[in-house]
């Protein structure tokens, strides 16, 4: 990740409140899309508005761009189901909507959410290819699905 962070298509930001580290974000820029690869807030700093403030700053700084993020599928069987629901609500509360496709990476399903316009599966594939390069495709199995997520996840 360090090598890619030096690329012009990637922006890596550390988030501070004064001198206190509260989190970080890793963004991938491609054409009209900013893909939020990571957005992490320290556990002790969650629910204090830092993540929401970051999203609002991104929207204000790049109003012409579409923001995209993937979240874990809301499987009621997941050990962290409550956390998954909170994560989805967080993005919905900031204007993100679900895309009409989902992805499977390394056998795990992820739902795609966007702000400022819809995204189709081909666009997400372009973002991933643009970021990852040819070697990544040999090591990571990423599949895009347009049908509903099966119940067995």
Question: Could you name the key traits of this structure?
Answer:
single chain, 153 residues, alpha+beta, seven-stranded mixed beta sheet, 7 strands, globular
Order of helices and strands: HEEEHEHEEHE
Radius of gyration: 16 Å
Overall body shape: globular
**Which parts are unreliable, with pLDDT below 50 for 5 consecutive residues or more?**
none
Share in helix: 25-40%
Find the structural class using helix and strand composition: alpha+beta
Mean pLDDT across all amino acids: 86
Number of helices in the DSSP assignment: 4
Main sheet strand line-up: 1-2-3-4-6-5-7
User: Which percent range describes the beta-strand content?
Assistant: 35-45%
> What distance separates the N and C termini?
28 Å
Describe the structure.
- The chain has about 150 residues and is α+β, with helices and mostly antiparallel strands.
- Helices cover about 30% and strands about 35% of the residues.
- It is built from 4 helices and 7 strands; from the N terminus they run H-E-E-E-H-E-H-E-E-H-E.
- The protein has helices spanning about 1-5, 50-60, 80-95, 120-140; strands at about 10-15, 20-30, 35-40, 65-70, 95-105, 110-115, 140-145.
- A 7-stranded mixed beta sheet has the order 1-2-3-4-6-5-7, with helices on both faces.
- The two termini are about 30 Å apart.
Itemize the secondary structure elements and their pairings.
Blueprint: H1 2-5, E1 10-17, E2 20-30, E3 33-41, H2 50-61, E4 66-72, H3 81-93, E5 97-105, E6 108-115, H4 121-139, E7 142-145
Parallel strand pairs: 3-4
Antiparallel strand pairs: 1-2, 2-3, 4-6, 5-6, 5-7
